[in-house]
Amino acid sequence: MSVHSPAPNLGLLDRLLILVEYEALDSIIALNKIDLVSPEVWRDLVNTYTQAGYTVVATSAITGQGVKELRGYLQDKLTVLAGPSGVGKSSLLNAIQPGLALRTGEVSRKLGRGRHTTRFIELLSLEGGGLVADSPGFNILSLPSMKREELSAYFRELEAFIGSCRFSSCLHRSEPDCLVNQAVEEGRIDRRRYQSYLDLLQEVIENEQRY
Ligand SMILES: Nc1nc2c(ncn2[C@@H]2O[C@H](COP(=O)(O)OP(=O)(O)OP(=O)(O)O)[C@@H](O)[C@H]2O)c(=O)[nH]1
Ligand SMILES: [Mg+2]
Ligand SMILES: [Zn+2]
Question: For residue 38, which of 1, 46, 59, 97 sits 20 to 30 Å off, Cα-Cα?
Fold first, then answer.
């Protein structure tokens, strides 16, 4: 995600994290374009996702901030960069390894969106070892099919609560003695992430009825 132009699409990020976890892959959240906003703005996002249990790196393909750290995460791994158009996936890879010379594109000033510059998935070799795939931007992602009880296992900050509420089948909505609700009230779980869980839970329930 970029922290600005385009604005972070946190709904999409939360879906992507679920999908990655569902496929038993590991995730690194790169928050790019930190040169465009004040540190308070991007640090807030870093804290939210770090506290939830994810690895986050704040980067700028322009100033080079965080690029070395990101390069370190890619070493000897097979990685795919995924996210909306215009967030700077190709630019970051160019910053990591200038010899890649990937094509990058302007963000539309009127719509604040990327112009779908990368058109296909390309697997690239990294000099320090490892392979990385650049990929086209996207904004829509459907959830994998699952039962309603399974969703919380794909939110790292909710996973720890499985089986600990009064009802073992607690969906953490408004059930009595729900420890997740308590953690949200006490600020130990981020409210927006919790709301994201509730929204996606609704979607999972609607999809269940199709089968
Ligand atoms: N200010 C700033 N601009 C950036 C940064 N990273 C990328 N950009 C700019 O953002 C625009 C889009 O960058 P791309 O690298 O083409 O984005 P992308 O994610 O590969 O986009 P698609 O290939 O369309 O999916 C370009 O104009 C880049 O110069 C950054 O860290 N800071
Ligand atoms: Mg690209
Ligand atoms: Zn609960």
Answer: 97
